Amino acid sequence: MSNETRNEGLWETIEANRNFMKCPDFSKYMQTSDQEKKLPQPPLGHPTVGAIIELKNDFDDVLVCSNYMELLDLRRSERKYDADVPMTQSQLAFMLWSTQGIDKIRGRNYATFRPVPSGGARHPFEAYIIVQNVEDLSPGVYRYLPLEHVGEKRVSIEFVSEFENHEQHISDMVAGQKWAATAPIVIIYSCVAYRAEWRYSVMSHRVALIDLGHVGQNLMLSAAAMGLGSCNMAAYDQKLCDEALGLDGYEEYTVYVNPVGKVSG
Predict the structure, then answer these.
(1) The domain that contains 91 carries what CATH number?
(2) CA dist 33 to 27, 40, 124, 206, 247, Å?
(3) What residues of the chain score a pLDDT lower than 50?
(4) What would the DSSP string read from start to end of 163-202?
(5) Domain total in the chain
(6) Could you tell me the residue range of the domain that residue 27 belongs to?
């Protein structure tokens, strides 16, 4: 660390962030979790509040690459999308199912098993979709409803809100990165923090960030398998993203932004 950085007063923050990445004694904090205190478990997902829209789900027709070695070569961050090429409902459905779909529920609504791993099977994320250009879907903000089709390769979403001035609004939400606004969809993952905190107390946030990486990798591999491009983004405007999804910014807040679409050229 340079003296210049130290003199700017950043060293304390950097040191705290480095320590956050480390793993202290889990058992110490587990003893104080709300699960250990026998407090009620939070719901596995949000209740459905809007009209349910079941997407077309011809998964066999959307995959253009099933060779794993080739898929790893294809998976690269892409930042140029063809805004005129719509995404199909089946492509959107596969993208959502492969990152947050539910294979089964364990116990009495205790935990969900999904295509991505999660510490303690807490899966504290919700998937929202800003739709700009998807076949037979009106533009707007939608939310994935994985609890509607447990154990099935079917996907339903619900309409959340209108989304005005799409391209400028998206650009503002991702800190002025205008290229993201050309994608037909932008998937945004939120964190419902207490789903993880209930089990892991103060250690839950470090675990959730690890889990988020699993989600992002599945998304990018799924996009590549369908011949699409994607890019996982950590730079975004917290307030604008939370407002666009209707989140309170405390109990639930944006943690990841992921544009997906046909690569231009």
Answers:
(1) 3.40.109.10
(2) 10, 12, 16, 15, 25
(3) none
(4) --SHHHHHHHHTTT-GGGGGSSEEEEEEEEHHHHHHHHGG
(5) 1
(6) 3-261
